[in-house]
Amino acid sequence: MINVESEESESTYKINYWIMVASWIVLGPTWVITGTYFQHYIRGLGGSDVIISLVASISTLILAFARIIGGYLADTVGRKAIILPLTFVLAFINLIYFIAWSWEIVLIAVIINNIILLYQPALDAILADSISKEKRGVGYGLSNFLVGILSPVSTFLAIYLVSKYGVVEGVRIGYLISFGLTLSAGFLRIKLKETVKPIQVKKLSFKHFIGEYTGSLHIIRERLPGYLLLLIMFNAIIGLTVLTPIYVTYYLGFGEEIWGYYSFISGMLGWILAIPLGFLVDKVGRKFGLFISVASLMASNFVLFMMHTLPKDVILLFGVGLIGGISWTAWSSAASALWADLVPKSVRGRISAITNLLGSISYTISGIFGGIIYHSLGAEIPFLWSAIISILALGVLISMTPETRAKKLMNNKDYIW
């Protein structure tokens, strides 16, 4: 490889880990405050349910291709070199969302936002660089736990803002808060240490770009086929149910406030279980965590499908939220740990970009189909399809996905870097 690992001390990696976690703790409330009612915000600005689905699909696709550039830069220019400036740029994108007077302006903000998020492969890479192999499940679980510390307060703030000021004005205030918090996260990231040696600027070229990605594709083909297929299927499941907030709020008739509490309950359980699930991912295995994730997702989607035939039951809905919280937390720890085990440090930026590109394409296509199915066949049908795909995904997990937890790593040199 042209790019080589820098010889940083263990203390540098610890510093990076805690800086990233601290910055995400600051950023966490922004995702909750603005994300809880984002689809409702588009609807309040004149967007239909189809438009909401389309915005989600377009944003995901743009982000996927932006990551390709970001992955190359993360491995060549450096992780910190792109994370730091783009965090500050991202802060100002919140002001576009704040002033949006129509869903078209929101779409413009989403496009710009997701281009700026090309730094995501660098985030993935610098965090993976900073966690030892034998502690990856706990490392990712701990980060998820700490990042979620402010989620309960943030969710209640989102509910309060929407209840007091209405959806549109309440979300606008949320974006102002997000602007300030994102700036603060940028200042925290100034202290990050670089974990790869940047290559010489004169070597950066389109030919070099193609060559680096060609090499990365060979690694993916050799090491990640099972993981990649599972990732594609998982994103298809999520994409099909992209209109869950609209389905729960309007189709099932629970209303905006109950949706806020649903989000709170889901996030709260995921937060509580972040460290225990991370521990199990290290001790029992990555596949165990992934099994919990996919099985929980299957169960929650099937219940959501059935709820259109049942009397409106808030307790049942909150139960679905609890199951969904388990799914996302288990996936985050197990999939991240498995990916870091399988991918060499020097190509993590590029491979993050490629795998996320394929996952995003899957999400985009399924999101478009989910929106069409929602309106043409029935709002509940996407949830049934998602449950069926989950069953297939469990088959892929069992038959094609490798186990790479620390005990296995010591016995298989293919997974040691």
Distance between the termini: 14 Å
Question: Helicity range of the residues?
Answer: over 70%
- Helices and strands, in N-to-C order? HHHHHHHHHHHHHHHHHH
Structural class: mainly alpha
Arithmetic mean of pLDDT: 85
Instruction: Give the low-pLDDT segments.
Output: 1-8, 408-417
Strand runs, count: 0
Indicate the overall shape.
Answer: globular
Largest sheet descriptor: none
**Count of runs of 4 or more consecutive helical residues:** 18
What is Rg? 21 Å
Residues in β-strands, percent: under 5%
What is this structure's SSE topology?
Blueprint: H1 10-35, H2 38-44, H3 49-76, H4 79-99, H5 103-116, H6 120-129, H7 136-147, H8 151-165, H9 167-188, H10 206-223, H11 225-240, H12 244-251, H13 255-283, H14 286-306, H15 314-342, H16 348-376, H17 381-400, H18 406-411
Please describe the structure with a list of short key phrases separated by commas or semicolons.
single chain; 18 helices; globular; disordered C terminus
Describe the fold and architecture.
With 417 residues, this protein is mostly helical. It is 79% helix and 0% strand. The chain has 18 helices and no strands. The longest helix has 29 residues, at 255-283. The two termini are 14 Å apart.
What's this model, at a glance?
This protein has 417 residues and is an all-alpha fold. The chain is 79% helix and 0% strand.
